[in-house]
Amino acid sequence: MCEALAQRPVTVQLHHQRQTTDVPVAVREQLGGDRWLERVTSLHAHGRVMMDNLSYTRLDAVPDWFLSGLDAGQAPVGHLLGKLFVQREGMPGSADVAQALWSRVGLPDTRASRCYRVVTPESPLMLIFEVYRDGMVQR
User: In which domain of life is the source organism classified (predicted)?
Assistant: First the structure.
């Protein structure tokens, strides 16, 4: 969607990435597992931020090539998800997940935010919290 609006490939800026066992309660409840990859990115085009994203990926539920793609940090996660059979499920946001993004990047904007879970036929894969920024609209 971002590339269609920008009419060009977007740039991924990786702010933070770590493997962790310490995640908000909502992540444990929605994904299961006991180890996750926490990742904060921004998508840019035309020199402006289009979107800030926080994702938690369940490490025992993804193939190695998927983690390698995330580590490379060169393409939006949607490009990697396109290689898997996944569905997106809208989720209610949680204050602790939102705060995990707000504490790293951007200003809080609950009106332009959404939270969803990415699932495969086998298990939940990711929890993503994202906020659309003014770079989504061309001036």
Answer: Bacteria
